[in-house]
Amino acid sequence: MDKKVVIVGCGPGAPDLLTIRGKGAIQEADVVVGSKRLLSDFVKKKYCTTIVLENNYQDIFDEVDRIKEDKKVVFLVSGDPLFHSFGESIIERLGRENCEVIPGVSSFQYLFCKLKESWKAYSIFSLHGAKEIDIEKIFIENNRFILLLDPKHNLKFVKSKIRSIAVRKYTFFVASHLSMPDEKISKISFDDFDKIKEESLSILIVLVHDE
Ligand SMILES: C[S@@+](CC[C@H](N)C(=O)[O-])C[C@H]1O[C@@H](n2cnc3c(N)ncnc32)[C@H](O)[C@@H]1O
Fold it and tell me: What kind of fold does domain 108-208 have according to CATH?
């Protein structure tokens, strides 16, 4: 059998933002791999096997390699599979020719639709699982940008990296849990970066307001 592993972009979180094609792939799957949250939100049927993705990537890839010829395997990833996503590692590990990718609504696309603003003027950076990234340089070189945060590389972390620049010329918004029941988009001051409750899924929006 010549089966492809399907990587489904699930969108920012709300189940009704999953594409019809993505939903179809999940319905046809024998095995679905994903985080606990994505499995519980997007896999409703009881008769497929689910594998929880934690820090067990290597074991999961070995297992998928073993079963992919006989079983329809679907990986769930958040947002769009090829935007700062685990989707890239799946393709790299399993091979382009063995994968099909179903796009999803990215967190940043959803955010800009909520703001009713075009994102074309914004640069996009990710601190998620951050490698070496020069945050101060991003602030100096860009007038409008978003930063994808993660629980470790959070607002407190950002503040610790940009102490020496003129922070007052910026306006900041933080957007958390987009499309979920506890979605929040609020303006925030630089001083409050280390005071607010950090959410696991959030994005910082930065713009120069006196340009
Ligand atoms: C590994 S990246 C995945 C991005 C994803 N592929 C996408 O297209 O949105 C994870 C980061 O995306 C952002 N993110 C994803 N979903 C989000 C949501 N519902 N609300 C806010 N931020 C979100 C957060 O910054 C999170 O740390």
Answer: 3.30.950
